[in-house]
Write a structure and sequence with these properties.
11 helices, two-stranded antiparallel sheet, alpha/beta, Glycerol-3-phosphate (1)-acyltransferase, 7-stranded mixed sheet, 327 residues
């Protein structure tokens, strides 16, 4: 018999006491391990009295939990807010043992237009990473630009799908969207290349379902694993090679363990008003305006990320592609 997954309702439902405890753990991790310094003045331009949408970049490689620690730390710890915040997420999160139960207590909701509107109307802020895994798994050379689209594999090719649905949810309520950008977390598990060939021919496209990976993440960890494999002296064994390739492609833990405890920086960009020019727009006109607003948000986020990247010491700075909005 198939187990029923208890998915949270559309409206607010966070456990505030649990969120505050989680924020204290996040503060210890972010301040002491990742040397992140935040102040209340960084968020002076945020109108906390009126609920809005935080538009976050998914910048942590496989360490997406850092996003949650950072959000809880700045929201409950730095900004001293006692209003709960809703995390828009994928339904699969709630089926993960232990994590799924605690995600509900933190305020995770299944991403939908109805969920966003219900939370905003109840006075709860919403946070969403529009790019999902497409943004999360970008290589370190693209660390200074966020992707607010998803890649879908259709008819043998990847198609970009701009994530404007949350704008469609927020525009009727005339709320503001704030880009909240995290830099430095890509070094925790550095991704060097995104291989579409490995993703396609290994069968991961089908195995991963609708996770929409942009490509198989060839990380620095793979080279560490290869060196360790070399030291074992098993490289002459075909069976050992099969096991090595299987674990390094199909088991995330073999290429997602932390390597570098880098310094994390955070910026909050200028707000973008989610509002249509007219109330009686056609569907085509709304789609066009949604795309324009998304480009605005993407540009604001890229400006923040590029500014943080340039603020690094020259000796610690790595090459990066010029930030751009490519949809």
């Amino acid at each position: 018999m198939k187990k029923t997954i208890n998915i949270p309702s559309d409206g607010p439902g966070s456990d505030l006491n649990f969120c505050l405890k989680f924020a204290r753990v996040g503060e210890f991790i972010i301040k002491n391990i990742f040397r992140c310094k935040l102040s209340r003045e960084m968020f002076d331009h945020v109108d906390f009295e009126n609920p809005g949408i935080w538009v976050a970049n998914h910048s942590n490689g496989f360490w997406g939990i850092l996003d949650i620690f950072i959000t809880c730390y700045f929201w409950y710890g730095v900004c001293r807010q006692r209003k709960t915040i809703a995390f828009m997420s994928d339904a699969r999160v709630f089926s993960i043992p232990i994590i799924g139960k605690n995600a509900r207590r933190l305020g995770f909701k299944v991403s939908s237009i109805k969920a966003i509107q219900s939370c905003l109307e109840a006075g709860e802020w919403v946070i969403i990473p529009p790019g999902g895994n497409t943004d999360q798994l970008r290589s370190i050379w693209y660390r200074n630009q966020t992707r607010m689209y998803k890649l879908q594999y259709r008819n043998g090719e990847f198609v970009k799908k701009p994530q404007t649905w949350f704008i469609h949810a927020g525009a009727p309520l005339k709320v503001k969207a704030y880009p909240i950008c995290v830099a430095g977390a890509h070094e925790v598990t550095p991704i060097l290349w995104e291989s579409k060939s490995i993703l396609r021919y290994s069968g991961l496209i089908r195995l991963r379902g609708e996770e929409y990976w942009p490509g198989f993440p060839l990380s620095f960890n793979h080279f560490i694993n290869l060196y360790i494999f070399y030291l074992t002296g098993l490289m002459t064994s075909p069976i050992a090679w099969v096991l090595f390739l299987f674990t390094n492609i199909y088991i995330d833990l073999f290429y997602s363990y932390p390597v570098i405890p880098s310094r994390i920086r955070i910026r909050c960009g200028r707000p973008v008003q989610l509002q249509y020019s007219q109330n009686d727009l056609t569907l085509k006109q709304r789609k066009r305006e949604n795309l324009d607003i998304l480009r605005q948000l993407n540009n604001e986020a890229n400006l923040c990320l590029d500014e943080m990247d340039r603020s690094r010491p020259i000796m610690g700075r790595m090459p990066a592609f010029q930030p751009s909005v490519d949809f």
